[in-house]
Amino acid sequence: MPFISLTEADAAAMLGELGLKDLDALFAHIPADLRGHAFALPPGRTQLEVERELEDLAARNQRAAEGVCFLGAGVYDHHVPAALREILRRGELYTAYTPYQPEIAQGMLQALFEYQTMVARLTAWMSPTRRFTTARPRAWRRSASRSGTRTGRASSSTPT
Fold first, then answer.
1. pLDDT at 37
2. Which residue in 132, 103, 102, 106 sits closest to 117, CA to CA?
């Protein structure tokens, strides 16, 4: 968006909204010794002039490859293949663990499988596809129906 400065009428309207008569009244709360200093700035230059001056300044610098470099703990001036940079950008190669930690999900699946297998063996119920949250109550009901108890547990010594 281009900068469009205020017109005199715009500035006067804004100052009027603030209840001020001029721009000096807007800055009156700033001590006089802190405002109104003229900056000793050189005259403006074109973009081309600035670019040339910056290029001259940059040309005076010494590149790291041209001098002695002590960074790297003894590994200096070595070639890094372009393919290595691309390989190192791959997130799955940063660590052995992927962002979603699949071993956690695998561990939960393993626990569910073991639990359902145990329930199936205890109750002679051969449907290990039941959900984890319903497997235990179903096992109690099945056990209760076989033992004839009303509590849903095979005996009072069965842990909950």
1. 72
2. 132
